[in-house]
Amino acid sequence: MVRLPSRSRAGRTVDRHVPDEAGGLRLPGPSRRPGLRRRSRTGRPSGPRRLLRRRLDGAVLRWQARLDRPVVDRTLPWLIAAVLFVVLAAPALARVRSLEPSETLARFTQAVTMLHDHRSDRITLTPAGVASPQSLAGLDGSLALYPLGYVLGFLPARSSLVLLQSGALAVAVVPLWQLARTVVRLRVGATAALAAAYGLYPPLHALGLDGFDPLALAVPLLLALVVAAHRGHVVRLAVVAAALLLCSSRLALVLVVAGVVLAVTVRPRAGWGLATVAALTAVAAQFAGPFGAGDGVFVDGEAFPPGTASALEVLARAVGHPAATLATLGERRVLTVAAALLLPVALLPLAALRHLAPAVPLQLAYLLGDLPSEQLRGPLAAVTIPFVFVAATFALARFGRAGTDRVLVAPRLSATLVGVAALFFVLEAATSPYERPWTWGGRDRFDGVRAAWAQEALAEPDDVIVAVTADVAPLLAQRRAVCLLPLDRYRCPGEPGLYLVDRTLDPTTGTAGDLQVETVDGDGRLVRLRPGPIGAGD
């Protein structure tokens, strides 16, 4: 044992005995035994790892301080929106060129053509179970498409609609950025992470590839509605709400719940006013033609199977049969859809359910409507997408730490959000690298036959009704009388005089011997038929 001088807390020099296990001299200090890491006074590991972490955190904070300026908030979200527009528009246009089946694109292409060329809003490419012909407003109250139809009529209709939808989905980054920066007061790093997660969100890409849907135009408007409500801009709130009701009467149910949430939380008078107007619109949509009741009953387009009128009908049935409702919500299909909507944002919306509430009734009606999960995770999620990110934004603020001017979110949490979003994009998105979207846009010999037959069908007299499958429908949408196959699912304004059939989409039409085969292409996949007894193909 050796005696070494040491200083006590009082400053006096005292003797300190330091034993040596081997009998020799050992200087005092931290243990150097293998496997024992040196720790700091706070209990955290010290050394190069901690030093690197502190340097990275410092670099992140310095860059956020440099970007935390008004000029960045005015320019950076628009740059992100421009990049996202290219990412969404390129594969959508490629699918249009390769003649991928799209009933919605054919329907609204015909609406634009009729409005511009014929000054008529009567369309025959109606959804399943809906009478044909039908007025454009009678489908789901899409009054906003009337002025858009006259403008887009000067441009190629199909490409213009696809670009319009991609632009609406991309520009939603701007109100999302405003919500995070001006309402929730997040720093630039957390806000950029939210924007990246939005751009990687798989349901967003599925919606962008689904032809055209008026509800896609509502995505940026719903985000702008939340921003206007929380910032107290009553006039802007009223204008955005009116634009939403003009996009589709289906949004009336969403605005009723949004108004109640706003009234209970931040804006009582504006919230109750919004809920009242939206409720009146929802009631009018059940009976008035201009608000969606084209044939006397409001039909949510392709949202529900034939025989079910609207979301209100489904919700009323769910309330009347609670046991059956709970059993349906426990099905694997429903839980899979819920996971597809919430997991790509790391389940953050579950920490702010109040802000997710406006999308719940309509999405719940969709889940109870026995619809394919591909639609529930894509086009029918258009209303849910903005509120998922509204809830995620407020959840980040809840997990953050209040600073002097901004809410400080841990960089690890922001990085986790981006990492999870990127993982689900690669695994689930319709434009995932596994789908090889850079190879889209080509045409095979079947596409050439479709295009040639469509040109010949356009030369048919106007009084001849052409019945086609969804792959050819966009090419013939400019005709006054065209309907979708199969006829046991879709309505037709009369007896068709020409049938263009893709057997992979409709294997039954013409097989009963009531139609004459006019032309068969190759292995019989594409068939052209006319009324009359069945005959041999050319």
Main sheet attributes: strand count, strand direction, barrel closure? 5 strands, mixed
Mean pLDDT over the full residue set: 81
Strand order of the largest sheet: 8-7-9-11-10
Helix content: 40-55%
Report the principal-axis shape. Answer: globular
Strand content: 5-15%
SS content category: alpha+beta
Distance between the termini: 109 Å
Q: Helical segment tally?
A: 22
Number of extended strands: 11
As a whole number of angstroms, the C-alpha radius of gyration is 30 Å
Number of domains: 2
Low-confidence stretches: 13-18, 20-27, 534-538
Overview of the molecule:
With 538 residues, the chain is an alpha+beta fold. The protein has two domains: 70-438, no CATH class; 445-531. 51% of the residues lie in helices and 8% in strands. The protein has helices at residues 48-67, 70-97, 103-118, 136-140, 145-152, 157-171, 173-183, 188-199, 202-208, 218-231, 234-247, 251-265, 268-285, 311-320, 322-329, 332-342, 353-356, 360-368, 373-376, 384-399, 411-428, 445-458; strands spanning 2-7, 13-18, 122-123, 134-135, 401-402, 407-408, 466-468, 482-484, 498-502, 515-521, 526-531. Strands 8-7-9-11-10 form a five-stranded mixed β-sheet, covered by helices on one side. Strands 1-2 form a two-stranded antiparallel sheet. A hairpin with a 4-residue loop joins strand 5 (401-402) and strand 6. The termini are far apart.
